[in-house]
Amino acid sequence: MAVLIRAPLFFVATGSMANIGGPVSAPVVASVFHPALAPVGVLMGVTGYIIGIYGSLLCAWLLSLVATALGF
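-> structure tokens emitted (72 positions)
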């Protein structure tokens, strides 16, 4: 997908590490590219946590709807 949208390697590497390690490890990867980009890594990690929380709540709600519709 990164090749199709022509995303820079910085965003791909930092986003991947933010998904795996969260806001703790994303600034380390971001600072490898440039030391001033460490706050961007923190922001990507925290944003991933926020989206993950609300995404999981939405998924749980949808699964409960499916379970009640099927009679489980």
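The longest helix spans residues 38-70.
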